[in-house]
Design a protein that fits this description.
Elements: E1 9-10, E2 23-31, H1 40-57, E3 63-68, E4 74-79, E5 87-90, H2 99-105, H3 114-117, E6 135-142, E7 145-153, H4 159-173, H5 180-185, E8 217-224, H6 226-236, H7 248-263, E9 273-281, E10 297-305, H8 306-311, H9 314-325, H10 332-345, E11 364-368, E12 388-390, E13 400-403, E14 412-419, H11 420-428, H12 430-433, E15 437-438
Parallel strand pairs: 5-6, 9-11, 11-13
Antiparallel strand pairs: 1-4, 2-7, 2-12, 3-4, 6-7, 8-14, 8-15, 9-10, 13-14
Protein name: ARAD1C18326p
GO molecular function, one term: transferase activity
Pfam family, one: TRI-like_N
């Protein structure tokens, strides 16, 4: 185990991609009754004690990410010269936000902005921060509630890794002992995945193309009930192609792609191709522990003509998604290790990105967090389980879509960023609205 005061851990090949130099935020909203004896100092004290216990067992969580020009443009985690403690924002005097108002509005994006809920923005502005801590926790107190926002540096961990760290913190706050397995699997290992010795990927002749975002875009949440998700999967399974089944995530991802593409038909040529990039947890393909807290994440890509996306049965699109993640035939292990080899071979790692050919004006990128078990975390606060789990509103990124963790009642809330015209047509789509419930 690394010393709390002295460690230097490479983030690994995937983390060296500048694409991940950002923060991922997740907010858990807890009710805090007005007559509760759980005051702010009590709650913050539990969090800080838990952060201390977790930092002692997993020192890297309290570190910061630094760049090493001497080591072929790589990043490392080194100690941060301050204690990891919860950040507090007291909004109990702000009548515009309260747990009751959030609850009645169903916890929409417009009421959950990163500027008040998170200590760091998802995407840095023109002046980057002076340091890049691995992990933050912010407790935002509102009338009748507390919102805990967990913020992780994406070069270090993906959402599965973030869930693992949150679970370790919940145990630490509850004064539960870590198991030997947790103490082992919870330590970062830069060599946990071995890149290919040679890659079949080509070094691009020019840097990745940046598509300018000119249209007004905004973040919106839609809720899909357990009943709606079962119906979509049932509809998809009526027209399977070359697979034995599709998952609820396959069906929902296909449905979102079809629906968003349909909302854009007025400005798309039906003969042109559109792409879907789907984020995938590749731990099981690479024999990595399911709760390993690092970055073990890659993408699958799906390209069809516009007319096929909108006209094919839902099951055909969902079947294509399923094939790409089927362990029996998936190339994800090879693709991930090949990309790692390419990254390792380049002094300037900014010249490649596995999202570089995505055009957000027509394509779509989807990341599902539906399997993240955030609703069963209580952090020993005595407040029960969270009422809602959301990603806070951040800088608009057109065509980016997130599935929130599945709620205890089976509901999955989907957050998406679309231009206003596309969003208007999507909301007016009767077939889409049959399954999706607008939150905002």
């Amino acid at each position: 185990m690394e010393s709390v005061d002295s460690f230097s851990i490479p983030v690994g090949s995937l983390g060296n991609s500048p694409l991940f130099k950002l923060y991922t935020q997740l907010s858990l909203c807890f009710a805090l009754p007005q007559d509760s004896a759980k005051d702010q100092n009590h709650i913050v004290g539990i969090l800080n004690n838990g952060l201390q216990r977790m930092s002692e067992a997993f020192p890297w969580v309290s570190g910061q990410v630094t760049f090493s020009e001497e080591d072929s443009g790589t990043y490392r985690i080194v100690p941060l010269k301050r204690k990891l403690q919860a950040i507090v924002n007291d909004l109990t005097g702000d009548k515009s936000i309260s747990m009751d108002r959030l609850r009645k509005a169903r916890f929409p994006f417009r009421m959950l902005d990163e500027s008040i809920l998170a200590p760091r923005p998802t995407i840095s502005g023109p002046e980057p921060p002076v340091d890049w801590p691995v992990f933050f926790v912010q407790a935002t107190f509102v009338q009748g509630g507390v919102i805990l926002t967990f913020v992780t540096q994406h070069q270090v961990m993906d959402m599965v890794g973030q869930e693992a760290v949150m679970r370790l913190l919940s145990k630490a706050c509850s004064k539960e002992s870590f198991t030997e397995e947790e103490l082992s699997s919870g330590q970062l290992q830069s060599d946990i995945i071995t890149p290919l010795e040679q890659t079949d990927l080509q070094i691009p002749e020019s840097s990745p193309v940046a598509h300018s975002q000119t249209a007004d875009c905004s973040w919106t949440y839609f809720a899909f009930s357990q009943k709606a998700l079962r119906q979509l999967r049932s509809i998809a399974e009526e027209h399977l192609e070359g697979v034995e089944y599709v998952s609820s995530d396959d069906a929902l991802t296909a449905f979102i792609w079809q629906s968003v593409t349909r909302s854009r038909l007025d400005r798309l040529n039906s003969d042109n191709e559109v792409k879907l990039a789907r984020a995938v947890d590749v731990r099981r393909y690479l024999d990595v522990h399911a709760s390993y807290p690092g970055l073990v994440h890659f993408m699958t890509y799906h390209t069809f003509e516009v007319r096929k996306v909108v006209n094919e049965p839902l099951g055909h699109i969902a079947s294509d998604l399923r094939k790409s993640v089927d362990p029996r035939i998936s190339t994800l292990a090879h693709d991930t290790r090949s990309f790692m080899a390419l990254i390792d071979s380049l002094p300037d790692k900014a010249v490649v990105s596995f999202m570089s050919d995505q055009d957000p004006t027509v394509d779509i990128s989807i990341s599902s967090w539906s399997k993240v078990d955030a609703y069963n975390l209580d952090f020993g606060l005595g407040l029960g389980k969270p009422e809602a789990v959301r990603r806070p509103k951040f800088t608009p990124v057109e065509s980016l879509v997130f599935f929130m963790p599945r709620a205890p009642n089976g509901e999955v809330v989907v957050g998406m960023c679309l231009r206003e015209d596309d969003l208007g047509r999507l909301q007016a789509d009767e077939w889409y609205s049959k399954f999706a419930d607008y939150i905002g």
